[in-house]
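Researcher: Sequence of Alpha 1,3-galactosyltransferase 2 follows. Predict its structure.
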Amino acid sequence: MSRTFSQLLRSTVARCCLLLVLVSSTALYFRHVLDIADILPAAEEKLLRQRINLDHTLNFGARPLVQTMSPWKAPILWEGMFDPDLYDQKHIQNESSVALTVFAVGRYLDAYLNTFLTSAEKHFMLGLQVTYYVFTDQPEKVPTIKFGPRRSLKVIQVQKYSRWQDISMMRMKMISDAIESEIHHNCNYIFCFDVDQVFKGRFGSEALGDSVALLHAWYYKRPKQSFTYDRNPKSKAFMETGDYYYHAAIFGGVLEHVKDLADYCFLNIMEDKLNNVEALWHDESHLNKYFWLHKPSRLISPEYCWDPVIAENQDINVTRLVWASKNYKELRTR
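Model: Prediction complete. Tokens:
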């Protein structure tokens, strides 16, 4: 009798404990649902701000001598196709915010960073909230710049590498890490730039999109067989053909798309390293492979990154950004 009572008592206690666990779990579940319900409207509002689309206002016939639309219907932006005031008004209304990342490592900092930043303040995304993220191995040497309202700079210290090729390739991991740890708190768009460039004209909100790629100034009119894709079948960047040749000096978009691109490039660079392979043009080769597999939603013309050395410039009605003069022998000697 005593054993039966003990068994019954233990069974009752067990049922009570189980009931308490169920009640507690149910309470936590409903609390979680309520928390999600509170978060969703804000997340949806942010998503709507990211997905501004004014492509229906573009005049695709304004530039008959150049290609203004890709085969997959993505616009290729040229001067005369868009109303800059319309784009600015919409993005200001939707509180679009832009991160600009730039790497100034080694001698590149002294040679280019000050001019890059001061020219960006005159021409890049004026009217929008902009945060410059400067990646450098010499934080103490970053120049002091006077920034306009709602524009600021953050310095991220990076490792010094022995080869410039490693700096070029490792930037993809650093960009991805910065998006995850820092940038997503402050911005909903990002543009990634090389530092050896100078802004000369409007580089505005018309360039913002989900996934943005730049047509290379030297290749946008050349036949595909001349594109310098990586032709080594052992490399993860290997391509037999493609749509265009993209320049890695500029790429951008909403944060999740740029992070996907950066992660893809970094993982494939690392796999190549394991196989003792290095892509022909380093991260640019992997970027071209990514955009071949994942078509960009917006292409920006060579107006947005022009090399003044090119004599054939009749298509370029305005230069928004130009290549700075380079002395690679001096810059890349460590």
